[in-house]
Write the structure tokens for this entry.
Amino acid sequence: MFLVIIFFKAKTRIIQIILKEKSVSMNSRSTVWLRIAGICGIIAPLIAFTFILLAITYSPQFSWIENALSDLGIQEGATGILFNSGLIIGGILALTFASGVFIFLYEKFLGRTGALVFLSASLALIAIGVFPENARPMHYYASAAFFALSSVAMIVIGVAFLLMARLKMGVFTFLAATIAVTVWIAQFTTRFVTGVAIPEAVSALSTSMWAIVLAFKMLKQA
């Protein structure tokens, strides 16, 4: 009887050690992935905007007032290649970042939901590069989805931050979302420019700044 008790105690202890080691291993993997995702969140907008600016330098006829950024994607030579590949690469990196946001905000349902919405926005960004402006109507669906979903994601994640009592990050997230949405409202109501390159750039920049700040928060926690 004494040996049976010792056996069961030893067995229980071994199970506890195994479960603890698995938990530590899972936490370690999550930490590593959080770091990778954070780095991707910083690099993604830098690569995307660098490629876009390079594409513009190869297109002297491009006008911020009269054109859309997507006009660059259907031009021959380096311009189209730079623009489309920049969006695809940036979108792939943004997908990785979104998966990290999911881990970072996992404790809140709205946090997980917002991360999934941002992941969908990243897929839409890739689709913009895969389906250039002359690939109608797929390009327009992808473009509208990217700007709409990225704004919705920030709003949902902003609420998640407030529920987590992270007031500063919540307010900053709402500010970024407000800028991203307001510039489009202004364009649709007043049409302050002929093309949509400026609204696209302002909206994308506000989303990018938010992503970079959040990425640094993720790296700090990892």
